[in-house]
Structures are given as C-alpha cells and as structure tokens.
Amino acid sequence: MSISTSVLSDLLKSLPYLRPQLYFKASLTALSHAMEDQVLAATLAQPLVIASFQRERFYRQEAHRYLRLALRSNQIYVLAAPETDFINSSEHYEKIAFEPTDGLSHEWHLVVIADNYATCLVCRENLGSIAKNKQLPELSPNLDIDTARRFEGVWTSERGVSLKAAELLLDRILVYRPELASKINEARQRFSIGEPRSHSGAEQINEYACDIDTDPFVQRLVTYLQASQYKLHKAYRSIAAQARKERLVNSISTAIRRSLDPHEVLQVAAQELGQHLEACRCLIYRAQATDSKAIIEHEFLNPGILSVRGQTWELEKNSLFRDIVQQGEGVCISDTLNDPRVNNSPALSLIAKKFAIRSWLMEPVFYQGRLLGIVELHYCRMPPHECQPGELDLVEAIATQVGAALIQAEAYANLEELNQQLEALDRTRSNLIAITGHELRTPLSTIQVCLESLASEPDMPLELQQIMLNTALSDSERMRKLVQDFLTLSNLESGRVEWHPESLTLQECVDLSLSRNRTRSSTEKPPKIKTQIAENLPLVRADGDWLVEVLAKLIDNACKFTPPQGEITIKAIYNSHQMVEVTVADTGRGIEPNRLEIVFDRFYQEEGALRRTTGGTGLGLAICRQIVNGWGGEIWAESTGKDQGSQFHFTIPIVQSSQEEKRTKVKSR
C-alpha cells in the first residue's frame, strides 16, 4: 500500500455513490467535537476511534480530550506527522507517527464505530485555500484566519461508509506499526471491518441502528454556533483595540527614532501608556536585577494624585521586584488591601498607603534576558482595577519598546566611549611617533657624531677619545632600554609573559633594585635613599625578577623628578588584607591631583614628548601596573600637588602556607 495515496480518494473509489462536500475548518472542528462528545456521553463501552490530525501541532490542541476518550475505550488510534516529540507509543492510547510526505499530512479524519452506531469524517484539505489565506493581511491576533481553511470530503453516519473508512485507516496504521496487528484484528473481528456486506451502495442500511442519544451531538453544534457568533463580535472589538494599541506603540517607536535621549523616550512612553490605560500614575525607571534601589525619574500623573518623581524606591525590600527577578514576568495586584504579598510586607504596605495605590501593575523591561527597568501602573481610586489580558499585552509591548530605547541609548553611549578610546589610541600613536622619533634620533645622532669624530681624527687626544666612546656607549644603552621597554610592555599586555612565583623576602628585592639604580650616570648626583622595612615582615609571593623590576622603575622614576638635595624613602607594611603594601615616596616635583591616574598610561610624559628635561619613554609606570596586576596586586599614586612630592604604592600577596614559610627560614640558615 502506497503511503502517498489519499484515504479520501481510496474511499470514493470504493464507494462511487458518495458525493464529497465542501467544509470549512470551523465546521469540521464542531463536527469532530460533537462526535467525540457522543463517545464521552455513551454508556456502551469500547468503541473504535481513529483520528488523524495532519500535523502534531493540531493534535496537541486536542490531546486533553483524547486522554478522556481513552477512559472509554482501549481501541483509540491517533495519527499525526511529528514536529517535535510526537512518536509511536502505546501510552493511554495508540499513537502513530506517519511520515510528513504521507498523504495523511493533508487530510483530516475521525472515525467512530460502536456496536449501536457509526459515524465518520474523512476530508482532504484544499491546498489552494492555504495559499490564499497566507496572502490575507493579519488584521488582529484574535482573528483566527485558520478557521477559514477549506476541506473537501465526506461526513456521514452510514455504517458501511464508516466501516470502509476504518478499514483504510487501519491498513495505513499497520504500515507504520505492524506490531499492532493482533489488536487491530480484534477490532476488525468485533465490528466486521473488511468483511463482505449484504447491502451495497446508497441502499445500504445500518442493521445495528437503534435509539441513540444524539443530544450531546446536537448540543455541541448549537454551542459551537453560539460561540462562533460571540467570537465574531469579540473579533470586531479586538480590531478597534488593536488599532489603538498600534497607534500607541507607533508613537513610542517614533519617539525612539527621533531621539537618542533615553530620558525623552521614557517620558513619552510613561505619558502615552498612562493616558491610554487611564492609570492614575505611570512610572518607568531603570533597574537591574542586582540593584538595591532605584530613583523614579519618569512619571505620568493624573490631577489630584501625589507625585513620586525623585523618590528612591527600595528594591531590596520590595518582594514584588524580587518576584519579577526570579520569575521573569510581571506582577498584577488587583486590590492591595486584600493581597497577602502587600499585607505581609511592611515596606510595600507603607508605599501603598503613602501613595494611595489600590491596584498595582509591575512589568519588567527585558532585553535578551537582562533586566533593564520596570514599568509600573498605579490605580488609586475605587473600585479596584481588574487588569484585562489586552491591557497586560499592551504593557508588555510597551516594555519591549522601552527595552529597545534603553539598548539603543546604551549602544550610543558605548559608541561614544569607543570614539573616545579611538581618540586616545590616536593620541597614543602620535605620542609613540614623537617619543620614538625623539628618543631614537637623539642618541643615534650623538653616536654618529662620536664615531665620525673618532674615525676622521686619528690624532685626537686619548682623553677626548675616551669621552667620545663613553658618550656613544651611554646613548647606545639608552636606545637598548627604549627597545627593551617597548618589548616588555608588549609582552605583558598580550599575556605572553610566564610568571614564576616564589617565596621572597622583600628586603632582598629592595637591595637588588637599589644596586641596579646605582649604575645610573655618575654625572648625576642621586638624592638620598633610605629604607624602612620591618624585620618581621612576612614573606611575599611573586616573581622575583619582575618584583625587582617594579622596585627599580619606581626608584628610577623618583630619582628623575627629585633634586639631589631631596630624599627618597622606601617603606613596607603588612596591611592585614593578606597583602604587603610597598611605598616609594619622594620629596620631588609632585603630581597634580587630576593626573594621579593618567601617569600610568602608556607614553605619558608630564613635560611633553619633545621638551623634557628627563630621559625615558613614559612606559615605566605602565609596565609597573601590568606587572603588579599580574600577581593580583594594586598600584596607585598619591600627591598633594606640584612641588609637594609624590608617593607610589603597590601591594604584593604574602605567602599563605606556614610550612612553606618555615622551610624558607630553614634554607636561609
């Protein structure tokens, strides 16, 4: 048997006297429910029921009815093309999942055969009506265009037709579930399905006919007709409500397109929504899931209602806000006087009483699962306001628009920040060109002059030759440090540095850094340097080479900006946060308070790139910050202003294990 064939076509071929009729889906739904209700109302047990639903989504709408039908019979078969989780199974009743390419995917069948009656509905969908319906404009979500789908087929209570339809469908079921053969044979034998009949054609008579209670069938049809009239009336009202909703949403969308200012957009949204829903008060404010409070900035207010603009909403004690965060959906309270959520919360009770809130609606503003804000509607007059589904849908739609406005504003702010970063990057590039041009050109020029002099004047006195060589060597060392700083910062920022933490005594690292700084040019008299490091200071855990590098650069920086008669102090204390705090203080030039943070920027030079009296690239403090951040510490600068000296602080984690500390002490002995 080909599974691509139509059951309706096979039925019409077997019984050529049948004349198919045209049915709308609304009619088929009414007939199907009436046939099912007749089974539910019957006192006789174990009818055969075969239902084919085209697609799984149509079956899901009726699944609850078939659970009730399964209590009446164990001969119930449901067919559908799977879309999600519809599979062959025998739970409650027999499910048959047919291929989407099967002809059944375009047909609607319901066959009921009992001992005293039989009825069947066998239809095939008119595919032309589907294409036509898809071209119709969607006037309202409440208007069910699906009910206008058309089917061609047969609906009859003639037993012979019903038995033939059952035979065709049972054959199709066996194609997909051959294991049901014994159960299907039982149904065939009981109802004489597939056996030759003594009557034929239109003269066929139902020999089992008897008095059947058709009242459930008739009542169902009448009820459905009445419901259809009500739904039509409701649809017309929905069109008007939908038009008002669309005008409101469009007005807010227009405000979003006209302005990138979120304050303007949120005020328009609060005004329009409050007026449309006739609320006494409408609030829109920003709030995130972790916020403990929010300030009310945008409000619509009716005359005679107390304003809450500028008030601070305590969110941490607001159980309604916490419910929204946890459940991800809005909260609607019809009467605050009788609602336990308000009565059991002193904070909410106080708010409701102070601002005369009788009915309270809170709707979250989400974007991609992230809470951005809250929309609140307050009704302060009697009687309490019952929120209608249409109103809730409208508030949710406006909340979506508000979320779009906030994200748009956030994106604009991010764009502004990105532009600032690009400007800073451009300044960095300019500084890099200026600094490298100056720092490289100057020593290169000096080296070139010295070497040319040595090469062109062989009779130059030895003393002058030595001066030339020393100068060339000094400037070549200056160039080497410049290139080394560039490479060091690049490796630190890109994460290509391998850290080797170890337990260290800070005094030893300070001594090493001081010895490195003594190699500075002998022509410069360094300021006095003293250390104040406690003997009982705990061991620190860091990479020794990088710790010495930080100390050396901070000391070198202090020496550059401190006169020879000045003083540099190196201190270290245990700050009780599992950290040792090191301070390099000087009595030198000092730093303006507004520059205490930017001194750590790359290529920052206080005097400008091309007019400095001190050497260096402006990379030293940037390198120090990268190193300190690498071991989990912090670094910062303090100064009271120009010529008031400066202090550079950084923290180092201490060794946590007491056993490791003991082992270190043993090794030192």
Automatic annotation (TrEMBL):
The Histidine kinase domain covers 435-656
List the protein's name.
histidine kinase
**Family annotation (PANTHER family):** SENSOR HISTIDINE KINASE RCSC, TWO-COMPONENT HISTIDINE KINASE
Q: Which domain of life is it from?
A: Bacteria
Coiled-coil annotation reads 408-435
Cite the SUPFAM superfamilies for this sequence.
ATPase domain of HSP90 chaperone/DNA topoisomerase II/histidine kinase, GAF domain-like, Homodimeric domain of signal transducing histidine kinase
The record's listing under Pfam families reads: CHASE6_C, DICT, GAF, HATPase_c, HisKA
Q: What class of enzyme is it?
A: transferase
Could you tell me which Gene3D superfamilies the record lists for this protein?
1.10.287.130, 3.30.450.40, Histidine kinase-like ATPase, C-terminal domain
InterPro entries linked to this entry:
CHASE6_C (IPR033415), DICT_dom (IPR019278), GAF (IPR003018), GAF-like_dom_sf (IPR029016), HATPase_C_sf (IPR036890), HATPase_dom (IPR003594), His_kinase_dom (IPR005467), HisK_dim/P_dom (IPR003661)
Question: Keywords assigned by UniProt?
Answer: Coiled coil, Kinase, Phosphoprotein, Transferase, Two-component regulatory system
Q: What is its EC number?
A: 2.7.13.3
Q: Which reaction does it catalyse?
A: ATP + protein L-histidine = ADP + protein N-phospho-L-histidine
